[in-house]
Automatic annotation (TrEMBL):
This is Uncharacterized protein. GO terms for molecular function: sphingomyelin phosphodiesterase activity. It comes from the Eukaryota. InterPro entries: Sph/SMPD2-like.
Length: 132
């Protein structure tokens, strides 16, 4: 459902091929819920820096569901949207090359993260403020 919103008619997520289809090299980033309250998860800059380090990936990334602890998920299997550098723009979002004719340009003005639900979910809430 999240990739079917009309927002994604104007923006492309470079880590996905389409609705519910991720690129083969992007398995997403699942952070271990037990560490979401750490100060590292409180800002995108700190989280990005931490996940760029092998030790940080080892400490903060969760493994694939149903895998044993020996799966070693930090060894290049996860790519976080905020560390994706292949496409200019914040969080990897960019305008489609051919937007809908009646659409006005939209740009991401501000991105905020919320870790308030860190104790009850394994997701990090991301809010985008768009300039329309």
């Amino acid at each position: 459902l999240q990739q079917q919103h009309k927002l994604f008619c104007r923006f492309q997520d470079p880590c996905r091929m389409g609705t519910r289809q991720e690129q083969p090299w992007a398995l997403g980033t699942a952070l271990r819920s037990s560490v979401l309250h750490h100060s590292v998860a409180s800002s995108p800059e700190m989280l990005r820096w931490t996940l760029e380090q092998e030790k940080g990936r080892h400490l903060y990334l969760a493994g694939p569901p149903g895998r044993s602890r020996r799966a070693k998920p930090w060894r290049g299997q996860h790519l976080d949207y905020i560390t994706y550098c292949g496409v200019p723009g914040w969080l990897g979002l960019r305008r489609w090359d051919d937007p809908q004719p009646d659409s006005r340009p939209q740009e991401v003005e501000q991105v905020t993260f919320s870790t308030a639900l860190g104790g009850v979910t394994d997701h990090l809430v991301v809010n985008l403020q768009l300039r329309v």
